[in-house]
Amino acid sequence: MNRALQHREATVPDARDRQRPVTARRIVTRVSLAALVTLTALTAAVRHGAAQDSRPAILDSVGFDQHIGRALPLDIPFRDASGAPVQLGDYFVDKPVLLVPAYYECPMLCGLVLNGVVSTLRTLAFDVGREFTVVTFSISPSETPHQAAAKKAEFLSKYRRQGSENGWHFLTGSAASIRQLTDAIGFRYERDDATGQYAHASGIVVATPDGRLSHYFYGVEYPPRDLRLALVEASDSRLGSPVDQLLLFCFQYDPTTGRYSRPAMRAMRLGGAATVMGLGAFVMIMLRRERSGKRTRRM
After folding, report:
1. Short-list 197, 199, 233, 201, CA closest to 215
2. Are 9 and 97 members of one domain?
3. Quick one: 173 and 217 in the same domain?
4. Is residue 168 domain-shared with residue 254, that is, in the same domain?
5. Range of 230's domain?
6. Whose CA, among 4, 137, 218, 249, lies 20 to 30 Å from 17?
7. What HEC string does the chain produce?
8. 29 and 108 share a domain?
C-alpha cells in the first residue's frame, strides 16, 4: 500500500507545478493581446492617413461662405420652368426670398436638401407665395426648363398648398448667370469631368425683399422655428405675430451655427427686468395691505 501511495504521489503533480504553466500561459496571452491591439491601432492609423491622402482634390474648392448683408445682383438673367426669360429681381418685390442652390439631376444631396426644405415648409404657418417666395436654381448650365418643370411639379405635390405654384420657382441659366449668383451668396462648387456630377455643399439662404442676404442655414434639415424667425426678421417684422417679436427679442441669430440662441447678456437683462418688476409688484401689494390695515383700525 505504501508503494501504491508513493506511486500516486509521484504521478500527481505538485500544486506549484500546476500554477507555473498557467502563469506562463497568461503572460503569453496578455502579450499576444497587447500586440493585437497595437497592430490594430497601427492599421487604423495607416488607413486614416491613406484616407486623408486619397481625399479628392476637387473638394478643396467646395464650401458655403456667408456674405450676410451683401446685396444680390438682381439683374441676372435666368429662365423659369416654362422656358420664359426672367431676371432674379422679378422675385424680389415685397416678400423675403428663400434661395435654394441645387441641380435637378443630382443623384443624392440635392434631393435631400429639397426634401428638407419641403419638410420644414409644411410645418410653417406661413404659405409660399403669400408670406414669402422660394427660388430654387440649378447650378448646372446644361439643365433645361423641362427638367426644372419636372422638379417643380414633384415638390409642389409634396408641399400640397394651394397657390404655391406662383411662389415657388425653379430656374435654369447660363454658366455666367449661375456663377454670378453663386459667387454672390458664397456657394462654391466644382464639376467632376469624369462623372459629370457636381461636388457642392448643402444649405439654403434667406434674403430680404430688397435683395440683401440675411440668414444662412446649412445641412439638409432646417429647424422650423429658426427658419420662421429668419423670415420674420428678413421681412423687417412685417411678417409674424407678437410672439415672434418676443422670440426675436429673446433670441438672436448666430451666423456660426445658423440657429437662433439666447444671448447671455440679453438673458441677464431679462432676468433683471423680471426681478425689478417682481419687487415692484411686491412693494405695491404690501403698501395696499398697510393702507387697508390702517383704515380697519380707524373704524
Report:
1. 233
2. no
3. yes
4. yes
5. 63-261
6. 4
7. CHHHHHHHHHHCCCHHHHHHHHHHHHHHHHHHHHHHHHHHHHHHHHHHHHHHHCCCHHHHHCEECCCCCCECCCCCEEECCCCCEEEHHHHCCCCCEEEEEECCCCCCHHHHHHHHHHHHHHHCCCCECCCEEEEEEECCCCCCHHHHHHHHHHHHHHHCCCCHHHCEEEEECCHHHHHHHHHHHCEEEEEECCCCEEEECCEEEEECCCCEEEEEEECCCCCHHHHHHHHHHHCCCCCCCHHHHHHHHHCEEECCCCEEECCHHHHHHHHHHHHHHHHHHHHHHHHHHHHHHHHHHHC
8. no
Does one domain contain both 45 and 192?
no
Q: How many domains does the chain have?
A: 2
Read off the CATH number of the domain in which 241 is found.
Answer: 3.40.30.10
The answer to pTM > 0.85 is no
C-alpha cell belonging to residue 290: 398697510
Residue at 270 is within a domain: no
pLDDT score, position 84 = 98
User: How many whole angstroms separate alpha carbon 225 and alpha carbon 56?
Assistant: 36
